[in-house]
Specification:
The structure is a single chain. The chain is of the alpha+beta class. The chain is built from 28 helices and 29 strands. Strands 2, 3, 4, 6, 7 and 9 form a six-stranded antiparallel β-sheet that branches. Strands 12-14-15-17-16 form a five-stranded mixed β-sheet. Strands 19-18-20-21-22 form a five-stranded parallel β-sheet, sandwiched between helices. Strand 20, helix 20 and strand 21 form a beta-alpha-beta unit. The longest helix has 67 residues, at 395-461. The protein starts with a helix and ends with a strand.
Length: 1021
């Protein structure tokens, strides 16, 4: 209760102060009436000079209805109706019989003014408002008008705008005969001279009018300042709509001020009569709407909801009626429009008083603002009703807006203080969050990698026993684990970036080669999606200055992002040169982004798709990290996108100055004296001839000749032979020409990266048959995994240590040679394991021949002896044997089988006897044995085995065919797989692998069920 009393006391005191200032203003600035014109109320403005009857009125205003005239001589002939007394200023009112509306009609006002020519000859008349058109004549001279008065509505034109008319006395004249013609056919509530006319010396009246207009302008500027800061606070603050409503209300006050009093708006903008009325009432109604919306938060619940909605509907309906109805109807509805405006004005003090006493003391400013506004409005109606002419008094409304401003500024500073406290709290929480995420990322990496390793081991160990679905599930788990690993790396990098712990080591980098490498790294991610990568960067694109590791990280993140948000199409990488900068763009045809998402896409923890349904998941850190890394390089990163049309991410890097490039052996921490390299012809010759010693043969592949020289120097000892290639294509050609123990390849090379080269090698050689060691400068998990995925055996990161490199090379070459030795021994062991039933069956045949044909028996015994001797010959463990040795074994085997099965087995020889070549031992005999046992003898009728050996200019072709039962396609696809329960299967697999090792290609098998089988292979000369 005490608080309510205090607030009430403050409100009454505030209202008293406003009222006191108003009375003071009335005392000094109210227009006085001339002593001789009390009823006429003609305003005489020279307070000092127009005294002592130097200017006097010759009578009062005279009104002549239904008459237009300009001089006294016309009065007697023009008058037809009796003259009624019409007070001025006031609205005329004709008898109802003369018009459907008593305010419609026309007439003339007349007044004689006696002046003293010695005081001045230039006079001015200021007409504020005459409804609804007028012309002013002085001594028969037209000096001003607004609209076009006429006797009939069809001829007249309404326009009620203020104007000032000037008249200069003629020589020896001292009388001003003032005649004003007026017509009104639009305003249904009033007509004629409804406001006083200001009259005085031109200089004095202009000075007063300028002062009055300046007061109006000053008030409007003060109002608009408050409206503008309301809009500014809305856009820079928390977007409280009440600020906009406040600004809208102030704008309506400005329009009302400019349409009242001197009505400056109609002077500045020449609106017609209709629109001058419409704008006035639209401003009134809109002001009420904005005020109720500004106070809506403080209203009681039922007024805030139902009452507020009903008032808004009434406001919009009223504005619509003002826009559609003519001015005459708008004038009829004037009381209704004023009532609409008054409702929130009268409601505001009550509501704000209740809100101030019950909820928040800061609302006292809104209460005082409401009191000042309603005080100004009440005084406006008092002055209008009493017809008191007073200079514009804007201070009530200025005080109201200041109170409103005080409320909003207090709220703003309070919110700002709360925001600063919250910001500091959030900054601490953000740091704790970053520390927590970094710690979690560190702690999760080791167990995650352990999980991935176990998954990989289980997948490889149980590959044959697991079902297809289980295998796919394991692959999915591996993919999810790898994605988690990428996210953990992003979290760690974000922490390093925030702490400025990432130091770049820029070197000249080929963006084309590096892009090709990254594409190979991520190629596996497109499996199952119709997406293709396209490297559109030219081979000869200039080098850029960049940290190679970080540039790969940027491209990996951008390409990964494009794949994640694309379902099909192409992901392409483009580059162009702009002055001293390279402009690199990653373009995709994915889902794209909306403009509002694009604006914040580079912020941390932001994603194009939000929520649990986001494609691919992730923390949303990749693009933020990319942008920071690009900026660390001195470049910029931008993005453009359209929904469902794809995205383009573009970044810039400084071009390298190739004129200053020096090719130092930076990839090794040691200094070497490079030996003289042999010529290419010498290398090819050395590669093709049989090695006299057992040196380890290495194929080194790198597009940088300096790096190749470093490798040659590291392996310059007698036990190594290094052959170099400067591209992947050249390396493949050299692999087809000789046998190597190991391939050492750089990852980043133009045209064909190290990943692609490794993949091509694995098409011909297994991991153990030809190991591949990759050299990479990018030691992140995804780079290493990409190498293993395409078939690399091991990797060494740059800058490499010679000791580590030699240890890894020695380990891999020992593996390769042990595998080769195992294959040769296995072939010899398989052949040495002569099937017991084959020997028993042969002895049975010998026993039978001993009773029938001794010569045939002796021949059979001799061939069996030859077959056993050749099968266990030590040459079978050598890498190569003569074709003659191999064919002798085949002939013995076929002779024995022919003796056993007779006509069921037919053998056709098509062998060029001039062929002199060495081939891997035990390559033809397993094929012939397979054709006899599984092709011919499986049929009751037997069949034919054809052995064809022919030579061409570059190779010798061996073809073994039969016309036996053949094989189904399904069995044909798995015939060369290792079958541990079938010795013949093991032999075919073993022989095929040895051929591929030596010559790059193995068996070619053609077979059709019921038609037979043909197995062939080629040996280069």
């Amino acid at each position: 209760m005490m608080i309510r009393r205090k607030i009430l006391l403050v409100s009454l005191l505030f209202l008293s102060v406003l009222t006191g200032f108003r009375f003071i203003w009335l005392h000094f600035f109210t227009t006085p009436s001339h002593p001789t014109a009390v009823q006429g109320k003609l305003d005489l403005r020279d307070w000092k000079q127009l005294t002592n009857h130097t200017v006097r009125l010759d009578g009062e205003w005279e009104f002549y209805p239904n008459t237009f005239f300009m001089q006294n001589s016309e009065i007697s002939t023009a008058l037809e109706d009796p003259i009624d007394y019409i007070p001025v200023p006031d609205s005329w009112k004709f008898p109802k019989k003369q018009s459907t509306n008593p305010y419609y009609g026309f007439g003339s006002y007349r007044l004689r003014i006696l002046v003293d020519p010695n005081q001045g000859k230039s006079y001015a008349f200021h007409i504020t408002s005459i409804t609804a058109s007028s012309k002013m004549y002085v001594n028969g001279q037209l000096i001003g008008q607004t609209g076009q008065p006429a006797k009939h509505k069809e001829a007249y034109e309404p326009l009620d705008t203020p104007y000032t008319a000037y008249y200069t006395l003629e020589e020896n004249a001292d009388v001003l005969n003032v005649v004003i013609q007026v017509a009104n056919f639009d305003n249904v509530r009033k007509g004629g001279m409804v406001r006083s006319i200001k009259f005085g010396l031109e200089s004095v009246l202009n000075r007063e009018m300028n002062f009055a207009n300046d007061m109006v302008r000053l008030a409007c500027v003060a109002y608009m300042i408050h409206a503008l800061y309301g809009i500014v606070l809305f856009f820079i603050g928390n977007r409280d709509k009440r600020l906009l409503y406040f600004s809208g209300m102030i704008t309506c006050i400005v329009l009302g001020t400019l349409l009242d009093g001197e009505r400056l708006l109609l002077v500045w903008l020449p609106f017609n009569y209709q629109w001058s009325i419409k704008i006035l009432f639209i401003s009134m109604i809109s002001g009420g709407y904005f005020l109720i919306q500004t106070l809506r938060y403080h209203l009681p619940y039922w007024l805030k909801t139902t009452g507020s909605l009903l008032y808004v509907i009434i406001c919009f309906a009223s504005i619509l009626s003002v826009l559609l109805l003519p001015a005459s109807y708008i004038s009829m509805l004037q009381p209704f429009y004023i009532l609409i405006m008054f409702i929130p004005c009268l409601l505001a003090p009550v509501v704000m008083f209740s809100s101030t006493t019950e909820s928040s003391r800061e609302n006292i400013f809104l209460l005082l603002a409401a009191i000042a506004a309603i005080s100004s409005l009440i005084w406006l109606f008092i002055l209008y009703a009493l017809r008191i002419e007073m200079m514009s008094y804007p201070f009530d409304l200025i005080i109201a807006t200041i109170c409103f401003a005080a409320f909003w500024f207090k709220r703003y500073f309070q919110v700002l203080d709360d925001s600063q406290k919250l910001t500091r709290k959030l900054q601490r929480a953000d740091k704790h969050k970053d520390d927590f995420l970094t710690t979690v990322a560190h702690e999760l990496r080791n167990p995650l990698h352990g999980i991935l390793n176990i998954l990989q081991s289980v997948s490889e160990r149980e590959k044959e026993t697991l079902g297809h679905k289980s295998t796919k599930d394991l692959e999915l788990l591996m993919m999810v684990g790898q994605r988690m690993s990428f996210m953990l790396n992003d979290l760690l990098d974000l922490g390093r970036l925030k702490e400025n712990r990432i130091k770049l080591q820029p070197t000249p980098v080929s963006i084309h080669s590096l892009t090709a490498t990254v594409i190979n790294m991520l190629q596996f991610m497109t499996e199952g999606k119709p997406i293709r990568f396209s490297n559109r960067i030219p081979n000869n694109f200039p080098y850029v200055m960049a940290d190679e590791n970080r540039l790969i990280q940027i491209l990996v993140n951008l390409l990964h992002n494009s794949i994640k948000y694309s379902y099909a199409g192409e992901v392409s990488i483009h580059a162009s040169v702009e002055k001293e900068w390279a402009k690199v763009s990653v373009v995709d045809s994915g889902i794209g982004m909306e403009p509002e998402v694009l604006e914040r896409i580079f912020e941390p923890y932001e994603q194009a798709v939000q929520g649990i349904s986001a494609l691919g998941g992730g923390f949303g850190l990749g693009l933020n990290i990319c942008k920071q890394l690009v900026e660390l390089h001195g470049g910029t990163m931008t993005a453009r996108s359209k929904s469902n049309e794809g995205s383009v991410f573009t970044f810039t890097l400084k071009l390298a100055d190739t004129s200053k490039l020096t090719f130092e052996p930076v990839t090794s921490p040691y200094s070497y004296v490079f030996p003289t390299s042999p010529s290419e012809a010498d290398l090819e010759t050395s590669a093709m001839r049989e090695r006299a010693n057992d040196r380890i043969r290495l194929l080194a592949v790198d597009d940088d000749s300096v790096n190749l020289k470093v490798l040659e120097s590291i392996f310059a000892s007698e036990s190594y032979e290094v052959i170099t290639a400067t591209s992947g294509q050249e390396a493949l050609l050299k692999l087809g020409g000789c046998d190597f123990d190991l391939v050492i390849s750089d990852v980043m090379m133009p045209n064909m990266s190290g990943y692609e080269l490794t993949s091509r090698i694995r098409e011909r050689y297994s991991l153990s048959e030809l190991p591949v060691l990759l050299l990479t400068a990018y030691n992140r998990d995804e780079d290493i995994e990409a190498g293993f995925r395409v078939g690399a055996n091991d990797y060494v990161t740059k800058p490499m240590k010679a000791t580590e490199l030699k240890s890894r090379v020695l380990s891999l070459t020992k593996l390769k040679r042990s595998v080769n030795e195992r294959l040769r021994i296995e072939a010899a062991w398989l052949q040495a394991q002569i099937k017991p039933h084959f020997i028993l069956n042969t002895f049975t045949a010998i026993a039978e021949l001993s009773r029938v044909d001794m010569e045939r028996m002796d021949a059979l015994v001799e061939e069996l002896d030859n077959f056993i001797r050749l099968s266990i010959d030590f040459q079978n463990s050598d890498q190569a044997a003569s074709l003659e040795h191999e064919l002798s074994l085949v002939q013995s085997y076929l002779y024995i089988q022919k003796e056993r099965f007779g006509d069921r087995l037919q053998v056709i020889w098509e062998v060029d006897n001039s062929i002199q070549i060495e081939i891997p031992p035990l390559t033809i005999q397993p094929l012939v044995e397979n054709a006899v046992i599984h092709g011919v003898l499986d049929r009751l009728a037997g069949g034919e085995v054809r052995i064809c050996i022919k030579q061409s200019e570059h190779e010798v072709e061996v073809r073994i065919s039969d016309n036996g039962k053949g094989m189904e396609d399904e069995r044909l696809q798995h015939i060369l797989e290792r079958q541990v329960d079938n010795r013949t299967g093991i032999g075919l697999h073993n022989t095929d692998r040895r051929l591929k090792q030596l010559y790059g290609s193995g068996f070619k098998i053609d077979s059709k069920p019921g038609e037979g089988t043909t197995v062939s292979f080629s040996i280069k000369k």
